[in-house]
Amino acid sequence: MTPAYVIATDVAWVDSVDGGRNDPIVWIARLSDSSLFALERTAWLVWSLLAEGYSTADAIRAEITTLQVTTEFGADGLDGFLTQLADQRLVVAESPPTPSQP
Fold this sequence. Notes:
By secondary structure, the protein is α+β, with helices and mostly antiparallel strands. The chain has one domain (4-89). Helices cover 32% and strands 25% of the residues. The chain contains three helices and five strands, in the order E-E-E-E-H-H-H-E. The strands form two sheets. A three-stranded antiparallel β-sheet has the order 2-3-4. Strands 1-5 form a two-stranded antiparallel ribbon.
């Protein structure tokens, strides 16, 4: 099963698009230790989709396809990028619920 990702509770962010800028950047602060991050272009898109509730790599891929956006995630792909966000404690990877047995 693929994990579901949610934005960590100790993270705050500002989206440049919300501020009226044309260049897609999100500035993120991890509040627990004041670490700062900036995600641009494709990384910004993934963060925006996570913020909108798209929580799995499959759901994010499907929405990117629907939007007809060309993306590049490098050798590790989208799954690797989501893992990097989790490693940096910007998102939390949650195991999907196990179906209950009758």
